[in-house]
Amino acid sequence: MKLDNLRKLYINELRDLYSAENQLLKALPKMAKGASSDELKQAFKDHLQETEGHVERLDEIFEEMDESPKGMTCHAMKGLVEEGSEMLEEEGEESVLDAGIIAAAQKVEHYEIASYGTVRTFAYLLGEKNAVKLLQQTLDEEGAADEKLNELAESIVNPEALSEGEELAETSSSKR
To answer: Hey, how many other C-beta atoms are within 10 angstroms of the C-beta on 20?
Structure first.
């Protein structure tokens, strides 16, 4: 597709998001399974349900435009998912690994927030009122998911990971 107007760029970016969301539908169950914290597992399960809704909203937008959502691979999401998968394969203390999983998940959320913000603005400029509403709804959910990850990191996972490091340091220093 030749990107010679904003509408074509908008469709291109929506297809990229569609690919990204579908990649996440496959990755989120793996992240839930790999997390050790029950709260983190639940956050990933909850976000999986939201992600299904994100795909449905994108389908609705494509249907209204009489366009196909298929035809792109979101390479950015592919890389972010791969990075998260690498974290799931690491060995170490559970809380430290959970902190790494949260870091990987927040990178995904920030990518999505930037992408949805962009397409929402394009939709607004193009006069796509229903799309603006649907994209804003998804953007709000992505922001809430990021905030939930922040809360889990700050209140549970990171303090536990820090205490693991202190315990290891105390153990190794007492052996000297």
So the answer is: 26
